[in-house]
Specification:
coiled coil; about 220 residues; rod-shaped; single chain
């Protein structure tokens, strides 16, 4: 019976070793994805900063368009400024989300830390395997519990890593949606106005298209 128990434990050790290898492959893939997301966030942050600067410039340079009705002119300016302020607020929120996400990425375990942890786990598994050839049946049964804990821990870490990657992949879609609505409002507010004003709005729209394409 002792021999049977030891054989079963060796089979479980082999299974845990395979699970650990799969975990290592997942971590390597996750690290590559995280690096890509970080580079994308850096580029997006630069574009958003440029976008915010353009909004500030246009906010300070409202074109003087001759209108027959002074009240209508003031109302148009007021609405235009209101839309611009709303757009600036949206951009600041997105920039804040990007910076928060970068801090979250920096706080995630580094690839080297994960590899060190896996190496230690493999060493412990090897020690347990060596001890199994010398211990009686009762001790073999006691070791079964920590083996199960090691396997559960590996599965838990794998699930947490994949959850983090899935959350990161949702950020670009959210960012594009936040920018698109205020842009449509600006375009509607500037309908039938001067060519110079429409040129400025088109520049804003081009920057947003560039940002959306990157996502």
């Amino acid at each position: 019976k002792v021999t049977t128990t030891i054989d079963n434990m060796e089979n479980e050790l082999l299974k845990i070793r395979d699970d650990n290898k799969n975990m290592n492959d997942i971590n390597n893939k996750s690290s590559e994805n995280l690096e890509k997301v970080k580079r994308q966030l850096d580029t997006s942050e630069q574009l958003l900063a440029k976008y915010e600067t353009k909004l500030a410039e246009y906010n300070n340079k409202i074109p003087e368009i001759p209108l027959p009705n002074y009240k209508e002119e003031e109302e148009w300016k007021h609405n235009f400024l209101k839309v611009l302020e709303s757009q600036k607020s949206q951009v600041k929120e997105i920039l804040s989300d990007v910076k928060t996400l970068k801090h979250t990425l920096d706080a995630l375990p580094q690839k080297s830390d994960i590899e060190d942890s896996q190496n230690v786990t493999l060493e412990k598994l090897e020690e347990i395997k060596q001890e199994n050839t010398l211990i009686p049946e009762k001790t073999a049964e006691l070791i079964q519990v920590p083996l199960n804990n090691i396997q559960d821990d590996l599965e838990s870490k794998s699930n947490e890593t994949m959850k983090s990657i899935n959350e990161l992949l949702l950020i670009p879609e959210k960012t594009a949606q936040l920018i698109q609505v205020p842009l449509n409002n600006i375009q509607d507010a500037m309908a039938n106005k001067s060519n110079e004003t429409m040129k400025n709005i088109n520049e804003l729209f081009d920057i947003t298209v560039t940002l959306t394409e990157r996502f």
